[in-house]
Structure formats: C-alpha cells, structure tokens
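User: structure tokens for this one?
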Amino acid sequence: MDLSWSDADRAFADEVNTFLDTRLTPELRSVGARMTSVYANHETGMTWQRILHEQGWVAPAWPVAHGGCDWSITQRYIFARALAEAGAPPVSPMGIGMCGPVLIGHGTPEQQARFLPRMLSGEDFWCQGYSEPGSGSDLATLQMSAVEDGGSFVCNGHKLWTTHANVANWIFCLVRTSQEDIPQKGITFLLIDMTTPGVSVQPIISLSGEHIQNHVFFTDVRVPRANAVGPVGKGWTVAKYLMQFERGGSVAAPGMKVRLQRIAAMLKAEFAAGLGDEGQDLRSQLAEASTRVDALEALELRVMSKLSGGEAPGVESSILKTVGTELSQRITEIALAAAGTYAAAWQPHAVAAGGPTPGFVPPNDFSSVGPAYSHTVAAKYFNDRAGSIYAGANEIQRNIMAKALLGL
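Assistant:
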C-alpha cells in the first residue's frame, strides 16, 4: 500500500487550498461550523454548489464528458479532506453523489443528456425514495407499486425518511413492477417528477426539532416509462450499484478531527475548569476517540489505495460505514458531556440547522445562552442517532462483515 503524496498531489492540494481561501466565504464557513445535521440547509448547500459548479469542481468523480472532473481517487481524497478541514458546508449527495453516477453507469444517452446538466447546476434538486413503512433495512420487501399502462407506470405507495423531499423537484425511487418468487426481483429504479399530480409530502420532525425528513405519498402518479433506469424489473442491480457510492470511499476522519479539536477547546474553557475528576475522565475519552479516528483514517487511506489500484473496496465499505457512524455518535456523546448544562438550552436560532424548525419562535433580541461552542451539541447528538441506520443499518453491515470475513 503506497500512501505517499507525489509532487503533483501536493501541487493539487495547494490549488484546492487556494480556492478555498478565496471562494469559501466567512458566511459559508460560519454555517459549516454551526451545522447540527450531516446536511446543510438547502439555501446554503445550493449557494456552495453554485460556487463549485462555476469552478468546475462540483462533481469530482464524474467523467469530464458529463461535466465532471474525472479526478483520481487520490485527488478526490485530498479535495474531500480539504473541504472538511476548512469547514465547508456539504453539497447534497442525493443527486451528484448517488443518482448521477447511476445515470452515468446505467442510464440511456437521453436520460444523461436530460438530467445530468441540471443536476450539476442545481436546477434539479433530488431526493431518494427507498425506505417504506416496514421496508427499511430489509429494502427488498418494498411494496410501492408501479403498474404499466401504455407508455407510463401508474405508481401508488408511501416512502418515508425522505431527506429534503420538501425542497426537491425530483425523486429517484425503487418501485415494485411485478411480484416474483425472490423479493429482489421485480423491482425497478424509477425517476419521478415531484410536481406530478398525486405526489404529496408531509414532514417528519426530528428529535432536534428540525424538518429534514419527510413522508412522500404517491396516489395514481403517472410516470413515463422512459424514466426507468436500467431494465424494468432489474432495479435491484441498479440499487446495489448506487450503494457503492453511498457507503464506500467516504472521507469522514478529517471532519471528526476538527470536531475533536472543538471538544478539546471546550474542555479548556473557563466553565469546564471546575470539572475535576469528571474533566479528567472526559479528556481520557477524548484521547481514546482520537486514537480511534486515527485508525479510521488509516482504513480510509487503505481503501483509497485499493481504489487507486483498480480494486473494489469490498467489505471495507461496510466496515467504514459501521465504524464511521458509531464513532461519530461517540464523539457527540463526549461533546454533550463536555458542554454540561449549557447543552440543555434549545436555541435553534443560534445554530445552522439542516432545515426549518417548525413552531419555534426565537427571542426578540436573538440572544443565546452559553458559549457559542455549546449551541450545536445537543442537536448534533440527536441528529447523529440516525447515523447507524441510514445507508444500510449497521446490523446489516455486521451481517455482511460476518459473511465476507468470517464465513458465517
């Protein structure tokens, strides 16, 4: 495994850092530092996406022919690490990171020409329609129906936990086009315009009070047959292809290091000086978490090395997803303890939530309680509880690891 940086790699890193120094505005950095979710709010995410699109850097992994950068695995890692270290807000992954690669790999030329440019520019904003009531981790049991009727599918069903469906104008869905002997058969990957009659969205409010997730209901929604990606009934193959981009090759460790630095600063702050033995225990927990983040980074670099050599990440994708999400949750627990009673104050006006907070009325003077570094702690803790569930529950990932590594 070769993890040394070449002269070209170092020059590229300098170019990225120069770009971030000039184009990542103080306002965007402020949002990045005050985020409570894995998602930036829609307006901020779109502002940053437009800046990246203008630079030509919004889709690092896409081929140049489709408007991407076609960067090497190493360049993409360097770029992702620089974004995390600079505190840049994330671009929504649903379009560029998930549906886009699927269209490049499985879409028709007509689908690519229609959807990819608008995905890059942000004119089309996408959400993911996978989970259903009773069909989350066991996704193959999904029941949203799509019945062929002439040149269309007529869709009926209910998707839930749909991130940013309230602001999206397109959704990519897994739907059932036939009942087969094996549940993975008869599923189709379908692109649906959210403005189509019969599509309705209802909010799901998270524990932190944010409106990021949604129910999406489909009642006799007519979708052109041309919006099926890949062969009808073979959507499970397309979905597995997408999962490679949702789970594998992620760069989480640099962002976690930034979070650990913030907790260290919290423990040094005046209010924490009197913690005594509790403070020493928290410092020990912080040191342990830091060691685990270093181990996660080593795994990320190993996966990057394999990908650079043309190898598939394999079971490492499941390891990264499991270790990364559970370690992120552990960091939120340490932060919560370090913030102490200040974390008890609910003050959405003082943070950069991932979505609106329905029913919250901020104080007239927009004052806040406690030091700024304590404002995001509780909301981040509550939001991160979902980390071990999304993108394939960690229990499922452990089953994959047990089968692939232990032969169970």
